[in-house]
Design brief:
Strand content: 25-35%
CATH architecture of the largest domain: 2-Layer Sandwich
CATH class of the largest domain: Alpha Beta
Number of domains: 3
Number of strands: 10
Oligomer: single chain
Number of helices: 8
Radius of gyration: 22 Å
Length: about 260
């Protein structure tokens, strides 16, 4: 089935030095621009991030420091990327939560004001998750080949959860072990989290708590805030340092809270 377009739709993906928006840098960008007449236009660049690419990250995307040493910086190509994306809606995989805010932050960093007002955002991952549920009922069907009746009944839910774990242990003997200590480490969200919600993370290098919070406020005008909580001398109270940046009608991701 062909897409019905009123203006170009730009599918794009970023490879970066890490996941920290505003701190990490882009090392590769690929864009597929689909025009309303069906024509496809490609754009691809590898970039020198001007900061080291961690070895662990290079193992994921295969791009090393040596491979991008002679490539242009993002600042050098920001103008051509801006023009290529002019008048485009955006599409990607997990793009609302990573690629779009990462790209916008990079453009702002080099002084390019990128207007999001009126653009539309298509996140293919959201379509996947909404049509192929990853809830308890779906897991029970997948692992136990049974339908969960009385879903959201506490007794039914915990029984199904127990059966799913047993099935997972049988299904993945090479990757998980029937040991609670191992399973605790395997399923932990972040071992640097201070609070259970994971909104505050201890940064041992800088001895500080930090979180990234963005939201839409004041009649549609987006406000993003990075807050650092710095220990005071008495070790019990904290001071705050805020940096803010404003966006006009940001994409849905700007209403999320993400741990730095």
């Amino acid at each position: 089935m062909d897409l019905s377009l009123s203006r170009p739709l730009a599918f794009f993906d970023l490879e970066t030095t890490g996941l920290k928006i505003g701190g990490d840098r882009i090392v590769e960008i690929a864009i597929l621009k689909l025009l309303p007449n069906g024509e496809k236009i490609h754009y691809h660049r590898r970039l020198n991030p001007e900061i080291p690419i961690p070895e662990a990250i290079s193992k994921i995307h295969g791009i090393t420091n040596e491979m991008v040493a002679n490539e242009p910086s993002f600042e050098e190509v920001a103008g051509e990327i801006f023009l290529f994306l002019e008048n485009c809606d955006f599409a990607g995989y997990n793009s609302n939560y990573f690629d779009i805010p990462f790209l916008v932050e990079e453009l702002l960093r080099v002084g390019v004001e990128f207007e999001l007002d009126g653009r539309r955002f298509v996140d293919v991952q959201a379509i996947f998750h909404k049509n192929e549920p990853r809830d308890l009922k779906a897991a029970y069907r997948f692992y136990c080949h049974k339908e969960l009746t009385n879903a959201h009944s506490a007794v039914a839910d915990i029984t199904a959860t127990y059966e799913i774990l047993l099935s997972q242990l049988d299904r993945y003997p090479e990757t998980i072990k029937p040991d609670v200590d191992f399973l605790h480490r395997y399923t932990a969200k972040n071992n640097k989290s201070v609070d259970l919600a994971g909104r505050i993370v201890y940064n041992e290098k800088n001895s500080r708590f930090q979180f990234w919070k963005t939201q839409r406020t004041f009649g549609g005008r987006g406000v993003s805030v990075r807050a650092f909580l710095l220990p005071m001398d008495d070790g019990r109270r904290f001071s705050r340092v805020h940096q803010t940046r404003h966006y006009q009608n940001p994409p849905p991701t700007f209403r999320k809270i993400t741990v730095s």
